[in-house]
Structures are given as structure tokens and as C-alpha cells.
Specification:
With about 325 residues, this protein is α+β, with helices and mostly antiparallel strands. About 35% of the residues lie in helices and about 20% in strands. A hairpin with a 5-residue loop joins strand 6 and strand 7.
Length: about 325
């Protein structure tokens, strides 16, 4: 993260404004990044009677830093946003540090500052710029905002897994008083209605197979650039989640999972025990009950610090601790005191 960025802080951004930018005749992903940067620097104070987060102190200089373009080009980007009536000059008399520009669309999706501020060190959304064709990058940026709108750590442990998930096949066998689950990934999956929603927001249509190649190119780009990662999760018949493994180099040591928290007591492992998120990904693990399904839940790397996020983190840890206690009580594993 960039210097001065506080983890978890966030600002709302208008997905409707981003759609207008993405669908302009001359598409340029830097305009999307610029608008996100302006929205990130909005003030929470209602200085003009239109509500909080409608005035921003950012301008062309911030756009220059975020996009890596020259000063003249950055000024042109801001001018293009003004010409589209996405931003306007604020009324006179307001402090410029907080009110250089007035946004015209209220934000409706919370975006963490770290996603934007990381641009200074190529640690955030800027890693997408020049990483692929402009159309793919535009799809990826707008897709990411759609994902933030559906990301809830408390309800889903990440992105709503009824809309977007990785399919895993699994088999169950009894193991003492518990169960042994063997699982293998199949493919990434998206709800057709959700796919259509994202594609249509960019003026596109699904192909004859109700699919979209550019969607999967954009999704692959988000994965490759580390802006989201998979949490292999078992879900029981009552809908309770148990994170099995966090498939991310950094988060795997920081976030709750059965294979991490019960490490060293033989609770399970990948077929290749030294597997570092590489093939083969097949795994086995013990579970105190027979799970209804095993799937990959997609989790965004940069997250907003909200009560829902805090409760979600606590819920994940509690579910892992409870599973370990039950497996110990069932004498499936022996937990060292």
C-alpha cells in the first residue's frame, strides 16, 4: 500500500458513472482509473448540501500519478470527465483541498482506498493498465467493481458464491466418527444471469452458448494480477461454511482455514503435500460431518473495514476452531494441548 493509506478505509463510487465511462465511443481504461481516483479522495463532509462524498480534492495531478501519464494528458482526462458531466466545478467559496471538483453521481459501491492508493507502487488496480488489450482491461475494472458490490465476508466469505464460484467435485467416506473428504477442482463457474448483467453493462451480449470469452479473459487477468484469490470451502446442509484452504501466497498464513489452523495434526493436505497452489490441486481433509458441497469462494484482496467484514473474519475463525474441537472429540485427530 502507498504511504499514508490506512488499511480498510473506503469511499463509495458510482457504478453508473463507471458504466458511462466504459461505454463511451473512445474507450480508455485510464478514464476509469481517473474517476476511481477522484472518488477515492471525496470528503465525508457535506459542504454543498448534496450529501457526503460528493466533493473531491483530487484533480489532474492525482490523475497523472495514478495513471502514469503526462501532465497534459492527465488534464485532458479530467476535461473529458467534465465534458461527460460526470464532474463539475463546485460552487465558489469552498476549500479547494476538499472541493476541487464536484462529482455528479452519488456513490453506491464501497471501494477500499488501498485498491486505489496502491497505484503509486503498482500494488493496486494499476497493475491492470497495459496488462492486456484496453477492452479486456476495461471489462476487468468494471467486473471488479461488480465484485465489490457482491462481496460480503459475513454472508458469503467473499464474493456471493451463488453468482461466481469455482466448482469442485468431492467424495465422502467415513473415518472413525467423522468423515474424510476427497476433493478436486473442475472449473470456474458463473451464474448466467450475473454474467449477462456484467456483459450488458458494457454494451456486450452473450454468445450462442450463453457465455463470453472477454469475460473470462478479464476474470483471468484479475486472478493473475492478484486482485482476488480462492478460498476452498466446505458447506454443510445447513449452509455453514468451513474454510479448508486459502489459495494465496500471503493470505494463506493470515486468514483462518482448517489446513492452516490444524496444521501438524494430520487433518488433511493436498495430494502433493508441498503444493504451493500449483497442480495437482486435489486435496483431502477430515470434516466432523458430511458436507453438502465443496467449492472455491473468490475473495477480494483489498477489503473495506466494515462491521460485516469484521464479523465475517470472526465467523471464519470460529468455524475452524469448532471443527477442530469436534474432530478432536470424535477422536478423528489428536490435538496437542
Amino acid at each position: 500500500m502507498a504511504k499514508g493509506t490506512k488499511a480498510g478505509q473506503f469511499s463509495p463510487v458510482s457504478i453508473e458513472a463507471l458504466k458511462l465511462i466504459a461505454n463511451r465511443e473512445k474507450r480508455d481504461p485510464r478514464l476509469l482509473v481517473a474517476y476511481l481516483g477522484l472518488a477515492r479522495h471525496t470528503t465525508m463532509h457535506d459542504l454543498d448540501g448534496r450529501g457526503p462524498n460528493m466533493l473531491t480534492g483530487a484533480g489532474a495531478e492525482k490523475v497523472r500519478v495514478l495513471t502514469g501519464c503526462g501532465s497534459a494528458y492527465a488534464t485532458g482526462i479530467v476535461g473529458a470527465l467534465e465534458k461527460m458531466d460526470l464532474i463539475k466545478r463546485p460552487k465558489s467559496g469552498l476549500p479547494q483541498k476538499q472541493a476541487r471538483w464536484a462529482l455528479q453521481h452519488p456513490g453506491n459501491v464501497n471501494i477500499p482506498h488501498a485498491l486505489i492508493d496502491g497505484l503509486d507502487s503498482s500494488d493496486g488496480i494499476s497493475r491492470l493498465l497495459k496488462a492486456a488489450d484496453d477492452d479486456v482491461v476495461i471489462y476487468a475494472i468494471l467486473m471488479l467493481i461488480h465484485f465489490y458490490a457482491e462481496h460480503d465476508m459475513e454472508r458469503f466469505g467473499g464474493i456471493n458464491h451463488d453468482l461466481m464460484w469455482r466448482k469442485w467435485d468431492h467424495t465422502i467416506s467415513e473415518e472413525g466418527n467423522g468423515f474424510k473428504v476427497t476433493a478436486e477442482p473442475v472449473h470456474d463457474t458463473v451464474n448466467t444471469g450475473y454474467l449477462k448483467k456484467i456483459i450488458s453493462s458494457l454494451g456486450g451480449q452473450l454468445d450462442t452458448n450463453q457465455n463470453s470469452s472477454v469475460f473470462w479473459k478479464a476474470f483471468t487477468l484479475l486472478k493473475e494480477k492478484g486482485l482476488l484469490y480462492e478460498v476452498v470451502t466446505a458447506i454443510d446442509h445447513e449452509g455453514r461454511r468451513l474454510p479448508i484452504r486459502v489459495n494465496d501466497f500471503h493470505a494463506t498464513w493470515e486468514e483462518a482455514s482448517l489446513l492452516k489452523d490444524a496444521g501438524g495434526v494430520g487433518v488433511g493436505f493436498y495430494v502433493n503435500q508441498d503444493n504451493d497452489r500449483l497442480d495437482p490441486e486435489s486435496c483431502w481433509f477430515y470434516h466432523p460431518s458430511a458436507p453438502e458441497k465443496v467449492l472455491g469462494i473468490w475473495r477480494l484482496r483489498f477489503r473495506c473495514s466494515t462491521p460485516e467484514t469484521a464479523r465475517g473474519v470472526e465467523l471464519e475463525q470460529a468455524s475452524v476452531d469448532e471443527a477442530i474441537r469436534k474432530l478432536d472429540a470424535q477422536e478423528v485427530i489428536y490435538v496437542f494441548e
